[in-house]
Amino acid sequence: MRSTYSGWQIAIHWLVFLLVVTAYCAMEFRGFAPRSYRPYFNIVHVSCGISILVLMVTRLLLRLKTPSPAIVPKPRAMLTGMAHLGHLVIYLLFIALPVIGLLMMWFRGNNWIAFGIVMPHTAEADFDLVDMLKDYHVTLATLGYYVIGLHAAAALMHHYVWKDNTLLRMLPKKRR
To answer: pLDDT for 81-136, tens place per residue?
Structure first.
């Protein structure tokens, strides 16, 4: 059995991390830009969201197909259960957020752009639904800050406190 995740799994993990940071930054910093630039921040945000969705589904399929490398030394059952719960929350969150965002864009009923391409939309807008979806999207995105923080803290705890190989399993291999 492998001692680390596959190169694909590691690459997808860190690419999703960079895309999530970019998507969050696009929304957090757009208010500092002149109003005429704000659509570009939205394009970046939506394009990152779609990319995250595709990569998270791919990552989930890889995870279901490929067993995770063993954690050495083996953690207590409670920590393993909490890790599984945490990963379930991460997968659900970063699949649900882009899906809700896409539905929100679809039901606005006007043109929107992702990857520089004008995307399809419904013929008739449903602004009540859009408002509800936006509330869910913002709430889940805010929850995402906490989930990401807990995930990073858990990885650091594994590495520095429990001194196991959890973090090392997801780091790219050093060139020799």
So the answer is: 999 999 999 999 999 999 999 999 999 999 999 999 999 999 999 999 999 999 99
Looking at the whole model, is its pTM more than 0.70? yes
Question: Residue 74: which of 155, 166, 161 has the closest Cα?
Answer: 166
The residues that bridge with 114 in the sheet, in sequence order, are 117
Q: Is 81 left (phi over 0), alpha (psi -120 to 50) or beta?
A: alpha
**138 phi-psi bin (left φ>0, alpha ψ -120 to 50, beta other):** alpha
5-36 per-residue burial string, b: 16 or more CB within 10 A, e: under 16:
beeebbebeeebeebbeebbebeeebeeeeee
Q: Given phi > 0 = left and psi -120 to 50 = alpha, else beta, which region is 105? A: alpha
Which residue, chain included where needed, has tokens 């649900």?
Answer: 96
State the Rg of the chain over Cα. Answer: 19
